[in-house]
Automatic annotation (TrEMBL):
<feature type="transmembrane region" description="Helical">
    <location>
        <begin position="400"/>
        <end position="420"/>
    </location>
</feature>
<protein>
    <submittedName>
        <fullName>Metabolite Transporter protein</fullName>
    </submittedName>
</protein>
<keyword id="KW-0472">Membrane</keyword>
<feature type="transmembrane region" description="Helical">
    <location>
        <begin position="475"/>
        <end position="493"/>
    </location>
</feature>
<feature type="transmembrane region" description="Helical">
    <location>
        <begin position="321"/>
        <end position="342"/>
    </location>
</feature>
<feature type="compositionally biased region" description="Low complexity">
    <location>
        <begin position="187"/>
        <end position="199"/>
    </location>
</feature>
<keyword id="KW-0812">Transmembrane</keyword>
<keyword id="KW-1133">Transmembrane helix</keyword>
<feature type="transmembrane region" description="Helical">
    <location>
        <begin position="375"/>
        <end position="394"/>
    </location>
</feature>
<feature type="transmembrane region" description="Helical">
    <location>
        <begin position="531"/>
        <end position="547"/>
    </location>
</feature>
<keyword id="KW-0175">Coiled coil</keyword>
<feature type="transmembrane region" description="Helical">
    <location>
        <begin position="239"/>
        <end position="258"/>
    </location>
</feature>
<feature type="transmembrane region" description="Helical">
    <location>
        <begin position="441"/>
        <end position="469"/>
    </location>
</feature>
<feature type="region of interest" description="Disordered">
    <location>
        <begin position="169"/>
        <end position="229"/>
    </location>
</feature>
<feature type="coiled-coil region">
    <location>
        <begin position="11"/>
        <end position="74"/>
    </location>
</feature>
Amino acid sequence: MGQFQPQPQGSAEAEAILQGITQQLQGLQETVAAQLGDDIGRLQQQKQQLLAEITQLQQECQRLQADHDVTLSRQQLAQQQLWAKQLAQALMVQLQARLSQSGATSTLPQTAEQLGTLDASLHRTLQTLQQDLNSYQSSLSQQVSRMHSMEHQGEAILEALVHRLSQQLQEQLQQPLPRTPPSPATHALHPAAAVPSAPSHRDAASRLGRRSVEHLAASDSRRLSPRRSRRPLLGPGPLWLWPLSLALHSVLVGVVAWGGTLGGVTTAAVLPMTWPNLLALVWWRDGTTLLPLTALLAHWQHPHVWQEIRQLWQLTDRRPLGRVLASGGFLFVSLVLCFQGIAQAGPAVAIALLCGYPLISDPLEAFLRGHSPSALTTMALFALVMGLVFTATGVSWPGIAFPLLAAAAYGLYWLTQYLSQLSRLGPGADLRPAQPLHPMTITLLQTGVLFLLATAAVLLSAVSGMAVIPTENPMGFYGAGLGLAGLAVLGHWASSRGPAWRQALVPATVPLLTALLAVVCLPSAPVLGPIQWIGIVLISLGLITSGRERWLRQRPQP
């Protein structure tokens, strides 16, 4: 036991020594780790510095290489110039030596021959250049003279048409007019004519007024309510709101597509006029404001409108209803194509080309009435053709195609609209029943068809994954739709103010008024040239002549 006692003490000392060594090793490890970390950080900094220096040296090397290349090229150029000078001097010495050896008498003829050859070559070159310049000048002169001749022809046609119109109007004004109350009118987005109402079948068959792409307001209030007079209470002013509202409607579509100034407010393009955006704009315009206000206006002007719609729906003969619905479909197609034409070529050109619809409607009218067009109608159609050709000058193919397709669709709309006016309600209703359809009934049904077709198109766009409401500028989209609907309702109301002859002639000013407003409000739209202005004036004169002829055929006979 005496030998076993010191052992715990030695073990404790060993543990203490081991712990001390461990602590020393840990301290040494920490010291070495700290030094290594410092060395690594310093090496990293040196590495970054070396990389920066290497990059700088590379850039300097590239710069020096570029300078060397430039210097080398300059030296080479200088060396080449020096060699050229030396070669020239050597050649000069050789030539002088040879010239001194050969006689002056033998050299002069050869020199004269060479000079003559050189002079002949230069003369031929100058003659060729002169001929080319003369040909270019003659071509330009022919083109300029052709332009002048076209301008003179347009001026001559315009003067002859104005002279003929003035003579016809003077003759007509000298004839006594019957004092018949104004009749209900049908209205167009562009020129339209008044359609007189009469109780006889013969007068009903002669109602061939053009219907509106935008508005169709009619008033037969003398037949429905003696208390309502169709005489304008405010003079000719409200009637002139009709073409003004139509022109502003087209210009507002141009502002949506092109941007511009309207009402003192300058704005950029509201949204791109893609097909989904265009259909959504038509849907918003027709569904939110135009359809409800048209229903209210129809009930105000014709209280029996809902009864007529119910009777029309209950007819066993579906042809009258089919004509009305078909006219609304053609109206929708014409409206959409017109909007796209405005987006492609601007409102001035698009509306002027759309006003060529009498080229379709007048021959159809002559065919349905069984008579040949008069000489004045033929002249009006010729003026329209010339106006369309002049207006389409310099316009892109889409800018021409869409308005002309819209005019064709409007011509078909006019045909179905005319057949709808012949439709009547009564026992065994067909084309010869007892009671004719009121124009406001047709207007309300057509507006409903517009809204339904626009809704179907928007739903198809939504099913295809396209945005129903444009996301580019939603507030501008909503404001544009409300503004278009408000202008449509304003023109709808103003179109029935005034006598029938004004309702037939005033809308002919829409193309010219639209062009003037486009110049003021749409600086970013395509600029019209002088030929295009002549074309728009010819179209307006042709529409005035066509409207006057239609009014003379449709006015009540004394």
